[in-house]
Every structure is written in structure tokens, then in C-alpha cells.
Write a structure and sequence with these properties.
Organism (chains A, B): Kribbella flavida (strain DSM 17836 / JCM 10339 / NBRC 14399)
Structural class of chain A: alpha/beta
Radius of gyration of chain A: 24 Å
Number of helices of chain A: 11
CATH superfamily of the largest domain in chain A: ATPase, nucleotide binding domain
Largest interface: A-B, 56 and 56 residues
Family (chains A, B): Belongs to the ROK (NagC/XylR) family.
Helix content of chain A: 25-40%
Order of helices and strands of chain A: HEHHEEEEEHEEEHEHEEEHHHEHEH
GO molecular function, one term (chains A, B): DNA binding
Distance between the termini of chain A: 53 Å
Low-confidence stretches of chain A: 1-5, 372-385
Number of domains of chain A: 3
Mean pLDDT of chain A: 89
Strand order of the largest sheet of chain A: 6-5-4-7-10
Number of strands of chain A: 15
Domain HTH iclR-type (chains A, B): 17-62
GO biological process, one term (chains A, B): regulation of DNA-templated transcription
Largest sheet of chain A: 5 strands, mixed
Oligomer: homodimer
Chain lengths: 385, 385
């Protein structure tokens, strides 16, 4: 029994096919037509047709045949990561960081500007502008060549890119970051909480990339979180998921006091972690008490979600080797099942990578849904190649 | 540019089409061919083809044309909810409940058997058997006519249907409920925690059916939970999600002590809720203190997930009118955003409905994936019609 699909069925099939080819090429090295057809489950004819269309649209390129191939060399196709550029920005209390990457997330340039949590709003925005302009210049791209921008900030962020609540940065509640950044870059700008984006980075290319459900801790003077549920960042109904630190019973607000007691009241903690590593008894006790307080809130997250992994990232992640065992001991005490605990390998760059990922997600949405990307950007001649 | 899809493309398209037609008919009243084609986006020819195949397989029936229709009456199709039967069982501390339903979840018969938490394992399993046999007899179906069985129990359950941990039912840890029930019903048997299944029932046909993210409380002498995330039941990596009650800081273990203080130490609480409703000052205080303790754990869940809804179900749900305001006051105090709070309308039957839903999910999976259902069951002549 054969059947000729109608126009409606065919155009749906066509779109599915284009998405399948793009995904296969994004996820892999260059593929021959035969490989691509096998990977996508499409016929050779359909695959060739889709590939031709994607080349016309600038997303896919043919690759030169490998030298030394025996017989007639097969054509190969690759995703054109250099077709566009994205920008990822992390606005932290002490550092603003901007990354320009290609569509594979390969970093072309990084800029950082030092700030303080006490800086006023205009001064922080000026530092932000300086950092972004420097990153664009360093990557040799114009603002119009940025296809998409992701921004990370401390605090709660609404769906339009405005900071709803920030109690750690001065004069930051109410600032409309999306609007502000659209003065510098024309393309879509999305803003998200820093803990959420650092979690996204771990799920994308970090230690959580093979895990479905993850509790991520942005551990520092303040503790933030990001939750990966079923492989996706969980935002919540009002974009306020993961804020368990606000509950006094979670123990996170007072936890750093144990470290401060050692450091003489200062919020500089590298020394106490180093001393604990060297076996200093008072430092070991301070770190254990800090971890015991943090562990109550972490246990609440773990008991709620039963994740596969707990990931420690953020400023303290470089010192997390001395935290892992005390944390595991406490989780063993409170939880029904203690998940694996891993330390982020991004150091201080996890949040910025997450912002890049947020920007790339916008590009992929546009790509897979067939919506238009900023038209000016199709004419890029890659600045660095 | 037209193109003839190959065999592989076509069979994939065919399966998608069958699923689209089944979903449209399951979700709606009987539909004409024209309506069905519009709903699914398929061509008339494809739709008719799929409908014919589904009729042959027993899933779909043609409906008699409406009397009095002007002109030649159009054929209409309906999903055959009477094609099979499912069984849902709730094994609680005080009641075992079994429902037999059709494939729409319409209840054909309910049986209940009274038990106690102290009952030993063999006695509880005997009571379970009695309840199931009575439900099958009441619905006039043979064990072989049950396509799928869902079972709810207190405690943690593993993926094979064994109770990993139960501290509220005597001798219950380690019992293999799936194996036990397969002696009575041949079809697939799945077992799940009662709080999780009651949450599933709310998302299916309860007060949470339009919500994406839900914190469900199975409120009773013990407090359980179920989490709906992104419209789906969240189980967790080890199927242990939602167990925040295990954390002493959550306040759930000691919360009922406030009610017991009023009831003279007994675990019978209808009177204290009624007295609070009537304005008895000591009862109002007892309920407020109970709610204040419960609210710490609920706040942890809300701050973690930022759900759209909190739903109160379980044994206390009939009395929850006196709990809602004190709970809201506490959530306002601890949470960044207090979600809407709603009371389940299932009374004591929510868990059993959830078990039915679990059974129906298995049927749907088989249906949509094209896997075989037990062959004997295709020959049902509906017992009750």
C-alpha cells in the first residue's frame, strides 16, 4: 500500500528533515552524504536536497576531499560555525567578563573588568560597556555581527531582562539589562540569573553534561544554585527557582560567618581554604562548620529532586577539594541517597560560558524553527580567519 | 520542487500520523473525517487510511450518524474506551482501594478493604488480594481482561516494583508488589509511591491539570509529596524525589505533635480540625502550629522549584480549608513568591486515581509506540455494556 503525501504533510516532513541534518552536522565532525543519510534516517535524495538548501542559506559548507583518498573522493559537509558570532556576559560583584564566540561556542576573545559590589549603577553599567566594547574589538567583530547575546547577573531576573531583585549589588534592583545592552548590540539579548547560567554551562560542556538531573551550587561569599531537570535548566513559574538560600532554615545566610571568624571578618577566603588543606586545625574546623551549614540547604535540594549529581562551582570551586568530604558526610547523614559530588572545571568562567550557551540557544531556536535571524548578520566575512 | 519520499521516510510518517489521529480522538468527542483531518493537519486520504487501520486494530469505532442531520450524514469516529480495562490500587495504612476503569479512566467499580498500619505483611497482602478480586468481580472482568495495572504504596519504590523502604507500614520494606500482583493479573504491573501518584492524578484530572509546575502535599498523619515539573511527574535519579520530609529542619516529622496534643495523643484529627473551624481557641492554635511546622518544608519546596501551584491532598484535604490561610501566611513570610494554594477535590481517592493514570500511561506508551499489548485482551466483549 503506497500513498502520495499531500503538500501539508510534505512541508512538515521537509522541516523535520532540515532540523535532523543540522543537528547531525552540529553534533559531529564533517559527514559524507552517505553518513549523513544514515545518521538522519533520510533517503540519499532527501539528504542531498536538504544539504543544498542549507548551503544556500549559509549554514553548511562543503569540505575539500581528504588528500590521498583512494577512488573518487566523497563530498563531505560541515556545519559553518563561523557563519555568526555570539556574545556572553557575566556581571559579577568583583568581575565583569565578556566572551565572544563562534556558533560552536569556541572563544574568540575574552575581556574582563574589575569592579566592586559597592559600585553604583551608572558606574557598573559604564564598566559593562567598556568590557563588551573591548571584547568585540578583541574578536574583531562589529556589534552588528553579533547574532545573539546572553547576559548573567546576580539576583532575580524577569522574562524581559530586568533585574527584579538584587541584594548583593548596589543600586541593581530594577535595572533593565536587556534594554541597556541593546544600545551596544542589535541582536536579541536575553538575561538570566548567574547560578542558573553556570548550571547550564555544566550541562552543556561541563562535568554535568551526561546527567539528567543536577543540583548546581554557585559557591562563594554568597551561595546560589541552578537546577537541571530532565536535561533542561529549570526556571520556575516566576523565574525564581533555586532560591532556597532565602530560607533561614537552609543555613546558607550564616554559613560564611564560620570562614569570616578565621579570616578576621574579611570576605577573602582563599587563605582559610589553603590553611585547611595544609592541616591547620582551626581552618579545618571553620571549613567543616561552613560546610555543615551549607549542607542543610543542599540536603533540602537533594531530598526534593533526588539528582544524579551535585556540582560545586563558583568562586569557591577552586578550593572545593577540602569541602567535598565534609559535604558528603553531611549528605550521608540527612539524605536517603547521596548523589555523586563533582567540582566544576570552569573556575571563574562557568557563568560566562552559561551566558554564551543562552545566546546559542536563541540561535538554535531561530535555526530549528526557521524564524529569521537579523538579516545584516548573514553577510559576515569571518573577521579572524 | 516535488519529491517522492522513500520507504523509510514514509513508514515514519505513517506512525506519526497514527499517533496524531489517536491523540485527537482520545482528547475529544467523536470527529468527522473532515474535523479529524483539520485537527491533525493530515490530508483527507491519509486520515481515512489511518482511521481504517485503527478500526481494524480495535482502537477506533465508527459512530452512527446523528438522527435528523440534513443531507448525507458524515461518518464520525470515536476512540474505543471500552476496548480494554485497567486496574488502579492504593495500598494505604488504613484502607486498601482498587478501581477498575475503562481506557478513558471512567470508573466501572471501586472496592475498599479496611486495614491498619500494624498489620503484618502476609495479612496485608491477603487483604490486597481480597480487594483486587472484589473489584474485578464488581466490574465483571476477568484478570486476563486487565490491560495494565498501577499500584500505589507508601514508602520508596524501586523501578521493578519492590518497596525499598517503608517506615509507616509494618513488615513492608522489601515486599515485591509487582511480582505479587502478577499472580492475580497477567498484564504489566507498575508500582509507585503514593504521594507521587496522587500528584499525577491532580495533573491528570484534578485541580492541577492546567499547571506546568506543581508541589503536591499528601497531607495526613504523615506528610508526603509529589512534584510535577514541566507537566510531568518528577521521579528523581533513584526514584526518591520529594522526600524532603526526611530532613528534620523541614519540620514535618514533629508537626502532627501539635494536633496530638489537642487530641490526647491519638492519631485521629477530624475533631481538632472541626473545632478549629468552629473557633475553639486551643484547636485554632494547634492547627496554626501544625501548619507553621509544615510550612518550613513547603517553603523549601517552593523556593527550590518556584511552582505555579501548591495542592493540598490526602487525608487532611477535607479539613484543609482551615489550613490554607495559615499556610499562605507562612509562605508569604519565607518565600520570594507565594504560589496559588488549592485543595484537592479527590478526597480519599486521589492516590487510587493516580494509580489508574499510571496504568493508562502504560497503555498509551504501548499504543503510541506500536508495541504489542497482551494479545488475549484484544478479544474483550465489554462486561458491563
Amino acid at each position: 500500500m503506497t500513498e502520495q503525501p499531500t503538500g501539508g504533510d510534505l512541508s512538515r516532513l521537509r522541516q523535520l528533515n532540515a532540523v535532523a541534518v543540522m543537528r547531525a552536522l552540529r553534533d559531529d565532525k564533517p559527514l559524507t552524504l552517505t553518513e549523513l543519510a544514515r545518521r538522519t534516517g533520510l533517503s540519499r535524495a532527501s539528504t542531498e536536497d536538504v544539504a543544498r538548501e542549507l548551503i544556500e542559506r549559509g549554514w553548511v559548507a562543503e569540505v575539500e576531499p581528504t588528500v590521498g583518498t583512494v577512488g573518487r573522493p566523497a563530498r563531505r559537509y560541515r556545519f559553518r560555525a563561523d557563519a555568526g558570532r555570539v556574545l556572553g556576559v557575566d556581571i559579577g560583584g568583583h568581575t565583569i567578563r565578556a566572551l565572544v564566540t563562534d556558533l560552536d561556542g569556541e572563544v574568540l576573545h575574552t575581556s574582563t573588568v574589575a569592579v566592586t559590589p559597592q559600585l553604583g549603577r551608572p558606574e557598573r553599567l559604564t564598566a559593562l560597556d567598556r568590557c563588551v566594547i573591548s571584547a568585540l574589538a578583541g574578536a574583531r567583530v562589529t556589534p552588528g555581527q553579533i547574532w545573539s547575546t546572553g547576559v548573567a547577573t546576580t539576583g532575580l531576573v524577569d522574562g524581559t531582562g530586568r533585574v527584579m531583585l538584587s541584594d548583593s549589588l548596589a543600586e541593581w534592583t530594577g535595572v533593565d539589562l536587556a534594554e541597556h545592552l541593546r544600545r551596544l548590540v542589535a541582536a536579541p539579548v536575553r538575561v538570566e540569573n548567574d547560578g542558573k547560567l553556570a548550571a547550564l554551562a555544566e550541562a552543556w560542556r561541563g562535568v554535568a553534561r551526561h546527567a539528567k538531573d543536577v543540583v548546581f551550587l554557585l559557591a562563594g561569599v554568597r551561595t546560589g544554585t541552578g537546577l537541571i531537570i530532565d536535561g533542561k535548566l529549570h526556571r520556575g513559574f516566576g523565574n525564581a527557582a533555586g532560591e532556597i538560600g532565602a530560607l533561614p532554615a537552609a543555613g546558607w545566610l550564616k554559613a560564611p560567618d564560620h570562614l569570616r571568624a578565621w579570616s578576621g571578618g574579611k570576605d577573602e577566603f582563599e587563605d582559610v581554604f589553603q590553611a585547611a588543606r595544609d592541616g591547620d586545625r582551626a581552618a579545618v574546623t571553620a571549613v567543616r562548620r561552613y560546610t555543615r551549614d551549607i549542607a542543610v540547604g543542599v540536603s533540602a535540594l537533594v531530598l526534593t529532586l533526588d539528582p544524579e549529581l551535585v556540582v560545586i562551582g563558583g568562586g569557591f570551586s577552586r578550593s572545593a577539594d577540602v569541602m567535598v568530604q565534609p559535604l558528603r558526610d553531611q549528605l550521608d547523614r540527612w539524605c536517603l541517597r547521596t548523589p555523586e559530588i563533582r567540582i566544576s572545571t570552569f573556575g571563574g568562567e562557568g557563568v560566562a560560558y552559561g551566558a554564551v550557551r543562552l545566546a546559542l540557544e536563541q540561535v538554535e531556536t531561530a535555526l530549528y524553527e526557521g524564524t529569521e535571524l537579523p538579516s545584516a548578520t548573514m553577510a559576515i566575512t569571518a573577521g579572524r580567519k
